[in-house]
Amino acid sequence: MERKQRGRRLTSRAELGRQTAPGYNSVMPEALYQPFPLPGRARGHVWHHVPATRRPRHFHREPELNLVTRGSAVFGMGDRNIPVVPGDLLWWAPGQDHVLLDASVDLNLFVIGLTPELSERILGTERTSRVTETTRVRVAPDALARLGELCSGVLPRDPMAVERLVGDFWRQAHALRTTIAEKHTFTIRALASLQQRPELRRSEIARAARGYPTEVSRHFHKDTGLTLTEYRKRLRLLRFIELARSGDRNLLSAALDSGFGSYSQCHRVFSDTLGCSPRRYFQSDVCTRMEQSFQPFGHPALTHSSDG
Fold this sequence. Notes:
The protein is an alpha+beta fold. The chain folds into 2 domains: 187 residues, Jelly Rolls (Sandwich); 90 residues, Orthogonal Bundle (Arc Repressor Mutant, subunit A), CATH 1.10.10. Helix content is 43%, strand content 18%. A 5-stranded antiparallel beta sheet has the order 4-12-7-10-13. Strands 9-8-11 form a 3-stranded antiparallel beta sheet, with no helix packed on it. The chain has a two-stranded antiparallel sheet with strand order 1-2. The longest helix has 19 residues. The chain is globular and about 50 Å long.
């Protein structure tokens, strides 16, 4: 059924299935794999949102923070919509799909991302394990002014200076995030376990979360908009793409080392998720076109619907 959000039309799952794009099998994937745009060899960067365009619904391995300093917007995450206002700080965990669905004309949005390795270096291993905790935090006016000032300045040319700036923001934002427990404890533990070991089975995830499988699954879906199975597939795909790109393994070895039981299982999940085969993705320009895909802001966004 067609849905509307603040005057902008959002596509239904049926309409999404009829959308096609060159290079994909027959339909557009529900979410694209798009690495966070880090210029050159940078390990972290701050981007100022450009109102005229947006990225389609996408996911990546890099953790990302969004800071709203003015205006309002609606983000999509899994099968959930999240309205935001000035002072909202959003966190997108590795593998979590997200998309900007709607925005006021005066939206001022900063997008901050960095590699998982730099995040761990900045926060330390113990604190990094807690980055799964909160999706949205409402920051106080003084903290908002401080974070906004960090983001709004002219970025230095020196990549190390940019990393220091991103590091300052990351530490301050993380300190704010860990003061609020928005997600259920089961979800937090399941996310942390899966990000370390995406090969875990549902029963093993439940044990790591210290709950029954049905309880852990229910809270996980409620908090992330994704099922445990969907999120686990995402993390395995991210690891598979990373290993396959490194050139150290062939596709079969990369699939097995990513937690898939076989290459055929990896091929099926990859094709179902991204709309093309792994070989076509890596041996043609599909990879580049997918990663660099942008949409005019008035274009219907890819929406997500969970099958439970």
